[in-house]
Each structure stands twice: as structure tokens, then as C-alpha cells.
Write a structure and sequence with these properties.
It contains 15 helices and ten strands. The chain has helices at about 15-20, 35, 95-105, 115-125, 140-145, 160-165, 225-235, 245-265, 270-280, 290-295, 335-345, 345-355, 365-370, 390, 400-415; strands spanning about 85-90, 110-115, 130-135, 150, 180-195, 220, 265-270, 285, 305-310, 320-325. Strands 1, 2, 3, 4, 5, 6, 7, 8, 9 and 10 form a ten-stranded mixed sheet that branches.
Length: about 425
């Protein structure tokens, strides 16, 4: 098993997550009629579809490969670059980028984006030129239907089968990994200050209730991200269909959040890791990767055991992963495949984990060893994402435009009162 890398400077690693919270318009970016008209049926047809297929765990999709957008051929030499990587701000460790540049003798142009809506708009318009892109799963079907991504040739990606968790080498949202490979994983739970929150969240009948507890008024925060935060409100209420198209279910989420705002004067916005570290918030909706590096923001005289992270022990909470893809117009498609394979290398993935704080789905990364080696403190071991979490957990997935509009209307209703 590979040794865990040394701890890297994690201060900038929050950028991708902070910006994601602000992209509440992302799900509608590709919902225009011209895009829908460009879509044919699936091939092979896991389900007949006119327009982008909406993937679900129980209803997987095999994304269509179009005749005018085939994969690259086998056995080609990588191009000379420069390789253009279009990604969230500071979402790959520079040491990993430098290692690839050195090994392949090429330059890398790392092009930042700060919101998925911004990124996809530029991809659609051709305003940005890139070889490799890091899309979110909920955008995948529409990007493929618009012929904006290049089908992958897996002969260049031996590390996918060799190193990645099996359930993510043939995921329900992209069967056969035709267009994407997984990047990193995370869960969504509750980060908290154990020195201020006197009740043991793990002993509560419904730990989500802590975010609604008036005793913590002025000390509770949630993300400014409509899908994730509304889903949290549904899970608190026992509703597990966090991609529901039922207007009454969506209203239920809105009403729950309004009740939270009234009870605790909730803060809506980014900064969970900073505010928990400094103690200005005591409870915050948090991503596991954020809590992994909250420890590095603590004042020097504050011990790490003041921090806690609650995620359902049975795994029945929110879980997800990011993806990596190649541009349909890539000037360096072979080099792009080599770069993706490089990121899936166990050594590079673990080095990247040491900086980003978000776990790669690597078979070599032993969760218990991560704690035993001291990389993850014992009191934060719940931030570890395990393979079984992807079987038990719930994922925020693509919605049809008319359904997404209902979710956004509900969120706007809640936000207008806070």
C-alpha cells in the first residue's frame, strides 16, 4: 500500500467548493431548445430518450457516441502541448501538475473557472479553448448531447481499472466510462465545534435537528447552494428522494428551511471551515473534504479535538464525486488521456489528496491507515469516504429544466427571508 503524502498547504483548496455553492443557476445552463433538438436517442438504449438522458442509480445510461465525434485511435503518441486544463480554481496540486510536465516534457496552461454555470457557458460558446475539463455529474448528459466532450479511449487509461473503485469505473451516470473518469469524492454532513455543542450528535434520534435548535441561534450556517441545502432539509424530514419532481416535496424543503431561519437566524454562505475553526459558527452544513482541512485553520493554541463531523453511520446521507473529461475540440487529445491516467496513478492521487483534502476513489487508500498514520485525526475519521457510502448514500443528480425551476423557486423563496 502507498504511504500517505505529507500534508500540503490547503488554504486555497476551498476555492472549488466555495464557488460551487454560488452556482445555483448551473443546472439550467444547458437547457435551451437548440440543445435538446440536437439530441438523439441513446446508443445502446438503456432507455429511449428524446433529449439528454437523466441518469439515476436504478436507471443507468450509456451515453451515445456520435459518428461525427468518435474516440481517438489506439496507439497514438502524445502531442507536444501545451496541455490546456480547464478546472476549478486551484483544484489540482501544483506538484502533481509539475510532475506531469516534467515526465512528458510539456507545458500546462491551467485555466480557472469559479462557477460551473460560467464554465459551461464558455464551453458552449467556444470562449475558452481546453483539452481537459472537470464537469459536475449533473451537467454530463447535456454536455454529451451537445457534442462538447470527446469519447474516451480506455486503452490509454489503464489506471482506471487498476486503481479506481469498481463501482466508479462503470458508473450509472456514464456506463462503460465512455466520457468521464471519477476525480475525487465527498460526503455532506454537519461540521461542529464539540467544545460548544454539548450534545453528542451521534446520540441524537435525528442529528439534523441540531441545525434547527434555537439554543444555537446565531451560530448555525448552511451553504448558499440550493440543491445541497434543500436536500439536507428533506433528509432531516425523512425524505430520501433528493431529486424529487414533486412540487409538494420541494415545498416541504422550502418550509423546513424557513423554519430553520426563524429558529436559529441561519447564516447562508461559504466559509464553514474558517468559521468553525475560529469558533464564530458552532454548527455548519459541511463537505467532508472541507472538514478534513478545517484543522489547519485552527488557532495555534486550539486542539484539533474541538472539531467534529457528523455523517450518518449507516451511510444514508449525501455522497458524490467529481469527474474528468476531454474536450471534443481538444488539440491535444492523446496528451489529455495521458494526463487523466496520470491523475489516476495511486502515488499522484494520494499526493493530490494531501493538498486538496478530498478523497480520491483509490483502492490503495486504506481509510483506517489514513487515520492510523495521523493524516486524519481520530475525532474526524467520519470525513473518510468509503466505497460502501456510494451504495448507501444519496446523490444530487440532473433535473429536467422544468423541475429544476421548481427547486430554484423554492430556494429563492427561502433566501428572500434571510
Amino acid at each position: 500500500m502507498n504511504q500517505l503524502p505529507g500534508r500540503g498547504p490547503l488554504s486555497a483548496a476551498a476555492s472549488r467548493r466555495e464557488f460551487l455553492r454560488r452556482s445555483s443557476q448551473a443546472a439550467l445552463v444547458l437547457s435551451g431548445g437548440s440543445l435538446l433538438a440536437a439530441c438523439g436517442g441513446g446508443e445502446p438504449a438503456q432507455r429511449a430518450a428524446q433529449g439528454p438522458q437523466i441518469a439515476r442509480p436504478g436507471d443507468p445510461v450509456t451515453l451515445r457516441i456520435y459518428e461525427d465525434n468518435p474516440p481517438i485511435e489506439d496507439g497514438l503518441d502524445p502531442e507536444k502541448g501545451p496541455l490546456k486544463v480547464y478546472n476549478w480554481t486551484d483544484y489540482v496540486y501544483k506538484k502533481v501538475l509539475n510532475a506531469f510536465s516534467k515526465e512528458y516534457g510539456v507545458d500546462i496552461e491551467y485555466i480557472n473557472f469559479s462557477q460551473m454555470s460560467e464554465a459551461v457557458t464558455k464551453v458552449r460558446s467556444g470562449a475558452v479553448e481546453f483539452d481537459v475539463f472537470f464537469p459536475t455529474i449533473d451537467q454530463l448528459g447535456k454536455l454529451v448531447a451537445a457534442r462538447l466532450l470527446k469519447p474516451l479511449n480506455r486503452s490509454y487509461l489503464p489506471n482506471l481499472e487498476k486503481n479506481v473503485w469498481p463501482q466508479l469505473t462503470d458508473p450509472f451516470y456514464d456506463r462503460e466510462s465512455r466520457y468521464t473518469v471519477p476525480y475525487v469524492t465527498w460526503t455532506t454532513g454537519i461540521g461542529y465545534r464539540a467544545d460548544e455543542v454539548k450534545e453528542d450528535l451521534y446520540s441524537l434520534a435525528n442529528p439534523y435537528d441540531a441545525l434547527w435548535n434555537p439554543a444555537y441561534r446565531g451560530k448555525v450556517g448552511v451553504y448558499d447552494e440550493y440543491r445541497t441545502t434543500m436536500a439536507l432539509a428533506l433528509l432531516r424530514d425523512g425524505v430520501t428522494d433528493i431529486n424529487s419532481s414533486d412540487s409538494q416535496v420541494i415545498k416541504r424543503a422550502t418550509d423546513n428551511l424557513k423554519a430553520m431561519a426563524k429558529a436559529v437566524s441561519v447564516r447562508v454562505g461559504p466559509g464553514d471551515y474558517q468559521r468553525l475553526a475560529e469558533g464564530t459558527s458552532w454548527l455548519y452544513e459541511s463537505w467532508s473534504g472541507n472538514m478534513a482541512y478545517t484543522q489547519y485553520y485552527l488557532p495555534k493554541d486550539v486542539p484539533v479535538d474541538v472539531l467534529g463531523y457528523w455523517y450518518p453511520p449507516d451511510g444514508r446521507g449525501m455522497v458524490d464525486n467529481d469527474a474528468i473529461a476531454v474536450s471534443a475540440k481538444a488539440k491535444n487529445p492523446v496528451l489529455a488521456h495521458h494526463f487523466i491516467n496520470f491523475l489516476l496513478d495511486s502515488e499522484q492521487a494520494l499526493l493530490n489528496f494531501g493538498y486538496e483534502g478530498y478523497m480520491p476513489p483509490q483502492q490503495d487508500l486504506d481509510p483506517d491507515r489514513a487515520v492510523a498514520d495521523g493524516y486524519i485525526p481520530e475525532n474526524l475519521k467520519s470525513v473518510i469516504v468509503r466505497q460502501e457510502d456510494f451504495s448507501a448514500g444519496y446523490r444530487t443528480l440532473e433535473l429536467r429544466p422544468e423541475v429544476d425551476a421548481l427547486w430554484q423557486e423554492g430556494w429563492s423563496d427561502f433566501r428572500s427571508g434571510v
